[in-house]
């Protein structure tokens, strides 16, 4: 989907009314809902999600984990990153390398992170590219899902091999 294309189906509102939302408008609405969560709610949900990820076979079997560095009220998966490093796994994170490009770079420690443009956390120091073909687990954030007026923080684990 590109630009202002419409979502393929209707969204159910809390009052039972069906509406068609523009993809960008939906993102804006979900971000707004996510940002209303307290820091305590985000921390508790993030901790629960990290425990669930660490218990998966996909995590256990991965030698290299591609993760994101949470921003704002996104699900914070620093617990997974820390454990992966402790477990001797290679951890890589995305770094913007141009207007429309990103690269997976190795993260050696959570202590090697600085605040970049717009407050986004990025690795500091010399960046070492990671070959994407060696990545065994990708963790990425979906902003939120609405279900009966309740905001759920969700994260998806998918083994890429």
Polypeptide structure, described:
This protein has 161 residues and is α/β, with parallel strands linked by helices. 27% of the residues lie in helices and 30% in strands. It has a five-stranded mixed β-sheet with strand order 5-4-3-8-9. Strands 1-2 form a two-stranded antiparallel sheet. It has a two-stranded antiparallel sheet with strand order 6-7. Helix 2 runs parallel beside helix 4. The N terminus and C terminus are likely disordered.
The whole-number mean of residue pLDDT values reads 77
What class, by secondary structure content? Answer: alpha/beta
Major sheet, described briefly? 5 strands, mixed
Q: What string gives the helices and strands in order? A: EEHHHEHEEEEEE
- Proportion in helices: 25-40%
Which percent band covers the strand fraction? 25-35%
Q: What is the β-strand count?
A: 9
Anisotropy-based shape? globular
Q: Total number of helical segments?
A: 4
Low-confidence stretches: 1-12, 143-161
**Could you give the order of strands across the largest sheet?**
5-4-3-8-9
Rg on CA atoms, Å: 17 Å
Task: Give the termini separation.
Answer: 25 Å
